[in-house]
Amino acid sequence: MQAVLDVLFIAIEIYIYVIVASAIFSWLYAFNVINPRNQLVATIGQFLYAVTEPALRPIRRVLPNLGGIDISPIVLILGLILIRQILWRYVYFNVF
After folding, report:
1. pTM here?
2. Chunked in runs of 10, what are the mean pLDDT values of the chain (96 residues)?
3. Four-CA torsion 66, 80, 49, 34, nearest 10 degrees
C-alpha cells in the first residue's frame, strides 16, 4: 500500500510542476516572448492546456473575477499540497 501512495505522491509532484509550467507558458505567450506560430510551441501549449484545464476550470467558476489576474493555479497547487499532506500524515503511516 505504501508503494501505491509513493506513486501517488510522485504523480502529485509532477502535476504541480506541470501547473507551474503551464502558468509560465501562458505568461510567455501573453507577452509575445515565444512565437505562437511555431509548431513545437503550439504543441506544448496544447498539451499543457489539455492537462491542466480540466482541474482549473471548476476553480475558475468558483473564484471571483479579479480582472486580468488568474489565481486558480495557486489555489490548485495549494489544494494538491493539502491533499498530499493529509495523505502523508493520516494514511501513509497508518497503513499497517
Report:
1. 0.90
2. 91 98 95 92 96 96 89 97 94 75
3. 80
| Nearest-angstrom CA–CA distance, 48 and 21 | 8
For 53, the grid coordinates are 484545464
Determine the Cα–Cα distance for residues 55 and 53; give it in Å rounded to an integer.
Answer: 5
Number of domains in the chain: 1
- Expressed as residue numbers, the domain containing 77 is 2-92
Please, are residues 19 and 52 in contact by the beta-carbon 8 Å criterion?
Answer: yes
What is the grid cell recorded at 51?
A: 492537462
For 61-88, letters b (16+ CB in 10 Å) and e give eeeeeeeeebebbeebeeebeeebeeee
- In this predicted structure, what is the pLDDT of residue 66? 87
The pLDDT of residue 6 is 93
Cα distances (angstroms) measured from residue 80 to each of 11, 27, 66 = 11, 22, 22
